[in-house]
Amino acid sequence: MIPEDFLLDFEENLDPSRGRSKYRINVLGYGEISVVFEIPEYAGFAFKRIPNFKSEEEVKGYIELFDYYESLLRNAGMRLLKSHATYVLRKDGKAVLYIVQEKVNPSQVCNKIIHQHEDITQIFIDIIEELEKVWKFNEENQGVEIGIDGQISNWALKDEELHYFDTSTPMVRINGQHQINAEVFLRAAPPVLRTILKKMFLQEILDRYFDFRLVVVDLIANLFKERRSDAIPKLVEIASDYFGERGIEPLTYDEVKKYYDSDASIWSLYLNARKIHRFFTTIAGRRYEYFLPVRIER
């Protein structure tokens, strides 16, 4: 969809530490290992940049898993936005992944939609029903499981139907084994934190996206960040009824609040540590590979 020589020129003339490029860019969002932006020269597309790879072989393997993950999600009945994964090799030998995706109107992304309506019950139920497709797929396909990050900002209404678009982290387990190389996540962290994250948090973070109940807890808890905490008590009640009919432990408001507080604290500390790492990397004259937000609203 996008000429590779353009992506290479874009990457070679990019300063991630300052969020600057010779091309005009508009940042749409930040992830733990990525940034999403648009470029006026290619209106209608959103670009996700992930610079976490040590070799061309490694990034090719990631793209292969990405394509497989999207195919599994579609087989489960999910509607996805059109996307294409590719990579560039810089002159310094660095492999950088770019995922190019069709861009929807920002007003149709669900974390914007929930501010257009006082009652967001129906959109919540619709997302729950989409998520359940994943767990039905996992139950029916012994040995192959797919995970999903179901938070509200990962969904959009296109042609009045819900579409999922955060497929850049290919969450696949085969016979209980995660297929993604976890080191890809760790490389975005400051070196001093990598061992701690690997021992204390990484497995838990990876596993949570394969647990239907925890994915829904995360979905509801995210409404604190989105400034719609007023809707949480009702959605906890709806989710609990939904789970009760399926033999899953119901939720409580206190559980959701505790989950959010813990998650927000961890990621705030993580962002601050990355800013310190960026500072020392740049004053040492080395390239810092990541875009970082000034702050994250919590």
Any chance you could write out the topology, listing elements then pairs?
Layout: H1 4-12, E1 14-15, E2 20-21, E3 26-30, E4 35-38, E5 45-53, H2 56-75, E6 83-89, E7 95-102, H3 110-113, H4 121-140, E8 144-146, E9 155-158, E10 161-164, E11 172-174, E12 177-178, H5 183-186, H6 191-208, H7 212-225, H8 232-244, H9 253-283
Helix pairs in contact: 4-8, 7-8, 7-9
Quick synopsis:
This protein has 298 residues and is an alpha+beta fold. The chain is built from 9 helices and 12 strands.
Describe the structure.
With 298 residues, the protein is α+β, with helices and mostly antiparallel strands. It has one domain (4-283). The protein is built from 9 helices and 12 strands. The strands form 4 sheets. It has a 5-stranded antiparallel β-sheet, sandwiched between helices. A 3-stranded antiparallel β-sheet has the order 8-11-12. Strands 1-2 form a two-stranded antiparallel sheet. β4 (35-38) and β5 (45-53) form a beta hairpin. The longest helix has 31 residues, at 253-283. The radius of gyration is 19 Å and the shape is globular. The mean pLDDT is 92.
**Largest sheet geometry:** 5 strands, antiparallel
The SS-based structural class is alpha+beta
**Integer tally of domains:** 1
Rg from Cα = 19 Å
Q: Give the uncertain stretches in residue-range form.
A: none
3D shape: globular
Number of helices: 9
- Average per-residue pLDDT, rounded, comes to 92
SSE order, one letter for each helix or strand? HEEEEEHEEHHEEEEEHHHHH
Proportion of beta-strand residues: 15-25%
- The largest sheet has its strands arranged as 3-4-5-7-6
Count all strands and give the number.
Answer: 12
Question: Helix proportion of residues, in percent?
Answer: 40-55%
End-to-end distance: 36 Å
